[in-house]
Design goal:
about 475 residues, alpha/beta, two-stranded antiparallel sheet, 15 helices, 13 strands
Amino acid sequence: MRPFELSLTEASRAVRARELSPVELTESVLARIAAVEERLGAYVTVAADAALAAAARAEREISASGPRGPLHGIPMALKDLIDVAGMPTTASSHVRAGHVADRDSRVAERLGAAGAVLLGKTHTHEFAYGLTTPQTNNAWDRSRVAGGSSGGSAVAVAAGAATFTLGTDTGGSIRVPAALNGVVGLKPTYGLVPRTGVTSLSWSLDHVGPLTRTVQDAALVLSAIAGRDPRDPASVPAPAPDRIPEGDLRGLKVGVPRNHYFDRVAPEVEESVRGAIERLAELGAELVDVEIPMARYIQAVQWGLMVPEATAYHERSLRAVPDLYAPDVRVLLEAGALTSAGDYLRAQRARTMMRDAWARMFDGIDVLAAPTVPMTAVEKGRDTVEWTDGTTETVSDCYVRLCAPANVTGVPALTLPVGRDSAGLPIGMQLMARPFHDATVLRVGRVYEESTAGAGRPAPLAV
């Protein structure tokens, strides 16, 4: 197995055992980037020289005193909303041309302290305001969308062009591309990972989290980036899980939604996810039918919060340089200016009611299991989806529909691969739990993953 094919856990173990040096690993991943980047378009910028210098420094440090932890010497990338001192943060937008960060974001600072090696910055849908990331191609089929907004981050991990990455998630922007590219994506509990130095889309819905090849990898990254930061007013002092409990799932109750999550879902997606849920039962979990509360209001609340908050963030630049925004993003930002204060406050009130209702739902279950997205990656340029009940839905509305509840309520949500459709495209299952029970979704995901074959391997790209 070539070094770029290793999961984070495997690479860390090899580095710790002195079987693989950080320089060898980083060189392998950089070579992989060179081989696939022209076809995939995952990266905004690749800092190869700086990465090799950091890898050499990590190698010297590990030789002298051993690794600081599991991320020491591991090559990774950051979504280009996340500041790194001295590097551009473009948000994949012409609006940010010439912008260079003057200090590290808190998560970049923590990854640096852990000894991770920065490869570069990955593409986002402009300012994270979209679910396709049009600059980037799907790692399994380049005629298909990558998903968004963390499309570059997901594709880099899926293609072996990064051992792990960080993305952001406001309505599914980690989980959607992770599901569409067959990797693991974790949206942590709201407030668990600080967003200081991260370009905002919607401050009350934004999260930062890892995209990795395995669930264990995601847990390792979460442990490094979580923790209180007084510069982020939403940050909380809750500790990140430092280990995932092992064993089967006996005694654990898994909620299976009766409504919302299996409404208007492609048959192959439903079949794979229901099969994965049955596998959880075989592993010892008790399946419990649950009703998703306030399901009819989810989309209205998501948009009622996100759209005006995004417009408020972009107010000055939208007035100064409106033509520099892509048309799809500009129209959303302009629409936000039409949202009344009353509508925004009603959305906030509904969010509070929804959080309370979800807390009561979790009184009877430990984890909720459902599809991550209703369908696999669509063809590039496709705008709408037609369902068998006659409903027509935009692609973005389709992809956000099953992810938005976890952002509105702030609960942790993990997506992991559970199969492929007849076209060979990945299908993802989403696991959610009550706030700050991130370890629970990681435990369930890891037990499922370890019961299947082939977890953690990159997409089969020919080079």
